[in-house]
Amino acid sequence: MINSEIRFYIHNHKEELFEKLVEARSGNENKEENFRQNYAIILDNLFKQLKIKENINIENEFTVFKGRIDSLYGNFIIEYKYPTRISASNTTSNMEFVKQVQRQIEGFYQKTSIPVNKVMGVVFDGYYVIYVKKQGDSWNISTPQEMSVNSHELFLMRLLSVNSSGKALVVENLIKDFGPSSIQSKRIISTFYNKLESNQKINKTKILFEQWQMLYREVCGYSFETRDLKIKGLKELYSLQTEIINYPHLIFAIQTYFSLLIKVLSLNILTYLKDNALIEKFHFHTENFEKLRNDFKDIEEGGVFRRLGISNFLEGDFFSWYLYLWDDEIGELLQNLIETFEKYDYSIIVLERDIAKDLLKNLYYELLPAAMRRALGEFYTPDWLAEFLIEDLHPQIKEDTLFLDPTCGSGTFLVMLIKKIINCYSSSITSEKLLKIITNSVCGYDLNPLAVICARANYIIALGDVLSECEEPIEIPIYLCDAMLTVLEGYEENKDCYIIPTKAETFILPKKLVDMKEINNVLDIVNDLIHRNSSLNVFEKQLMKQLPELIQSLSPKEYQILRDFYIKMEELNEKKIDGIWANVIKNAFAPVFQRKVDYIIGNPPWIDWQNLPENYRDSIQKYWYDYCVFDHKGLKAQLGSAHDDISVLMTYVIMDNFLKDGGKLAFVINQNLLQSSGGGDGFRKFTIKEKIPVSVKSVNDFVEIEPFKDLEVSNKTATIILQKNEENRYPIVYKKWYKCNKKVIDSNENKEKVLKKLIKCKELYATPINEYNSPWMIATKEQKRIFDRIISKEANPFYRARKGVDTSANAIFWVKEKKKIKSNLVLVDNSPENSRKRITYVSNFPLENDYIYPLLRGKDVKKWKYNSEYSIILPYTNDGKVIEKDELIITCPNVYDYFFMENHGFLPILKERATYKKLILKQNKHAPEYSLYNIGKYTFSPYKVIWKALAKGVAAVTISNENERMLVPDHNLVMVPLENETEAYYLTGILNSDIVSEFVNAYVAWFISGHILERINIPKYCDENLLHNEIAELAKNAHLMVGDEKRLGEIEEELNKKVNKLLLDC
Question: pTM of the entire structure?
Answer without folding.
Answer: 0.82
